[in-house]
Amino acid sequence: MRPVAALVAIALLFLAGPFAGSATAAPGDAPAASLQLALDQLTPRVVTSDGPSVVTVTGTVTNTGSVPVAGLAVRLQRGDPLHTDSDAAAALEGRAGTDAVSPSFVDVPGTLEPGASISVRIDAPLRATGGTGLGIDTPGTYPLLVNVNGEPDGQARARLAATRMLLPVLSLPAAVVDGALSEDVGGTVPGTARPFTMLYPIVDVPHRLPGVPGETTTLTDDELARSFAEGGRLNGLVGALAQRAPVGSTLRTGLCVAVDPDLLQTAQAMADGYQVRAPDGTVSPGTGADAARAWLAGVTAALRGSCVVALPFADADLVALTRNGDEDAAVRAVEAGREVAGDILDTPLQNSLLWPADGVIDDATLSALAGPERVGGLVLSSAAVTQAGRTGVVALDDGPGAALADDLLTSAATPADAPATAGGPVTSSPAAVSTPLSTQDLIGALAFRATSSPGQGPSSPVLLAPPHLWGAEGTGADALLSAISLMTDRGLLEPRALTTSGATTRPTSLLYPIGAGAAEVPASVVDRTRGLVGDIDAVATAAVADPGADVTPDDVFVPLRRAMLRPVSAAWRGRPVLATRAADLASTRLDELRATVRVLEPPGPYSLGTSDAPLLMTVSNGLPVALDVRIVIASTAGLQVAPIPDQRIPPLGRIQVRVSAQVVRAGQFAVDAIVQTPRGDDLGPPTRLQVRSTAYGTVTVWLTVIAGALLVLLVIRRIVRRARDRSGPPDGPADGPGDGPGPGPGGPPAPGERRPSPPEPAGTGPTVPIRTE
């Protein structure tokens, strides 16, 4: 039996082996090992024959897991050069191979404890084939991978972090081969410069809450203070533009700056002082007034006299608005954007050029915006037209011309994570976070496009249009503009002004991608903002224009209508939760403004001592414009109120209104006072008023009079009846049919009838019987 039992036990172990291994490897049982790699330098960003012969990468590795990691090692490895657009797309998505050359690892001494960080550095010779060398012998664009390995908590060595990027090699510097200096390897072909244009977006998400003139500007957070300051993203974008592409330079010829007018207006308001409202409602002073003032001055100086495109106000999602029935808001966004940007920048704008979010638009939106004064030209994605693969300028059917952006370059400028490798972590791109290398993929893709002409000829134009909400910051933008200048000097690119005219091919039709529709701002948010604009319009009907006032109704209500475009900003595309939150904040703030127009609640109840005593009500107006209002008293169970004439309340003031009322009952009761526009729309919320009456109302008095009269009548009736009862029949026999024997008043009593004894004659006393014997 023992041998049999042993065999069974062995069999069970073999059968349980795979399941036991699975259980051992379950995520819940394995130590949580996680590293984060943040690169901060790559030299050179573009390889040329007169540049360094060694690629240097530096960065920081942080242990974000819960277990220590020992045996750290890092290396820089590469894949084969890109040859086709498909190769480039695969590299940008993290699907391209990076194991064509796998140099040696560089060990990092020590153990990295949870939460700790350590600096790493790799020096990889470009042309060397041993050690850490990359073995690059021909120009091209190469996928690179920074690979971090380690041993988490005594486990086997594995890849724990990785970052991919593209390295453009225009030409190779000389290298020492077998003790001798080799020749440079050139890659630039003279006379093949491609026309190049770039849209340079300066955009941020909306931060401002609705407000009215005279009150302190309120923001939802203080992120703009950091972005405007030295080292911030928006500060860096403007600084790189001013330094690398000043007005009048060759590079600036091919640049057109796209600005969000709401961002400019917010910076202008911040410069005068502002406050920040936290999610819990607490308010604190803002810290970025000086930074906002300096940044706005820098933007104005950098953009004066150059190509500038104004995006729709708050970069509104035009297609989401029109597809949900709010064409007026789409028109308002386009017109307001150009008006605000023109006033602040004080420079001519490309006012007929429209660059919609994601470079896509549908026929209904274009029709709603029809007219050369609104849309004389478009900047679109090449995926937004029916004829795929188009480049340059195309003509739309019965519409304006459109310049088509290069979708490969747009993808390279868009943050994206690559899929997880088998058994390894997610491989991130530098563009996934705002780092100094955020534009390295874009530099590589642009070099690939400049050195290759896939089926379109060497002179086909290149239009670079990053996402509106571009994640690049100062260092990244500076590196990109420097790379463009380098490629221009090498005869690969030729900066040209942006144009939407001169199409040489047959007209094409618009195509609105399915994915674009799925990313739109939700219809519920569009409906809600349309309702909020209706509320603003209702209040505006009560506003009165005063020629002597500093603030006009338009000064109050036009900005409020524009503020309702922030919840439908294209910044919230694909982020419905943030769009809904923005709508909630706008609605709450609008309710606060409307609530300043109301009847003020007195400190105590009204005490009425007579039935027709008047009520004195104080009506307040917290808006900086005069309003004509109507006061309505509701819940009048205890009062009868005479009609109240319409009242005019001065800006930021209050008035007292005398309300004629009659008490219809005594005691304490409540009534609601509502302030409305002359057409009957409610302004502020109802105010509950307490009324205490010690007087009798009209109805009470009439009830009392009637009750008293009835009581008097009843008393008189009783007296009359008693009088009749006490009166007897007349003296002497009565003539008439009642005489004679028989029943009746004069006859003998009927059987069983009892009659009162006749009254005794006056002056006689009781008869005393005489007793005789």
Automatic annotation (TrEMBL):
Alphabetical list of InterPro entries matching this protein: DUF6049
User: One Pfam family name from the record?
Assistant: DUF6049
Residues annotated as transmembrane: 695-716
Look up the domain of life of the source. Answer: Bacteria
Please note every region of biased composition (Pro residues).
Answer: 740-751
Residues of the signal sequence? 1-25
Keyword match Heme: no
- What residue spans carry the region label Disordered? 724-773
Alphabetically list the UniProt keywords: Membrane, Signal, Transmembrane, Transmembrane helix
Asked if the record carries the keyword Plastid, the reply is no
Coiled-coil segments, which residues? Answer: none
The protein here is known as Glycoprotein
- Source organism of this protein record: Pseudonocardia sulfidoxydans NBRC 16205
